[in-house]
Write a structure and sequence with these properties.
By secondary structure, the protein is an alpha+beta fold. Helices cover 40% and strands 14% of the residues. The model has no long low-confidence stretch (mean pLDDT 94).
């Protein structure tokens, strides 16, 4: 059973997002970003209540802006998904989960050391340039 329901178009969209957000961090960096995307589909708490599909998560608007920088800047649309990224996205959707993004709902690149909290949420760790943050108030978040 997959971690989240998906269609082939979701795999392509998620692969494009993973590439746009973390291609420079290799397969592991892209997989960690993919973990956050799947975690948001599953969360149903905090900023992610009611989001149940990959497109809903990727195109979510918060505070007047898209949640992901790659959508805000259009990076997700500049590069197509290659076979490599599609394979990684499918891994995320089917089974792959790893720390520091295992339970993370947020990540960002601070271009500096990772702050211990981000908008009140505790850090779970760092991989290369991205810092990953856990939900402090999300019932059931640690069960996926």
């Amino acid at each position: 059973m997959p971690r989240a329901d998906y269609r082939s178009s979701d795999v392509d969209l998620m692969a494009r997002m993973m590439r746009a957000e973390a291609e420079g961090e290799g397969n592991m960096g892209m997989l960690l970003v993919g973990n956050v995307i799947v975690n948001r589909v599953k969360a149903d708490c905090l900023d992610f209540k009611g989001l149940r599909t990959i497109p809903q998560v990727i195109f979510q608007v918060q505070g007047g802006n898209y949640s992901f920088e790659a959508v805000q800047k259009g990076n997700i649309f500049y590069q197509g998904a290659r076979t490599r990224e599609k394979r990684l996205a499918k891994q995320n959707l089917d089974y792959w989960i790893h720390s520091p993004a295992r339970f993370a709902l947020w990540y960002f690149n601070p271009h500096a050391p990772c702050p211990p909290t981000w908008y009140g949420q505790p850090i779970s760790g760092q991989f290369k340039n991205h810092c990953y943050y856990l939900p402090k108030e999300c019932p059931g978040a640690y069960s996926w």
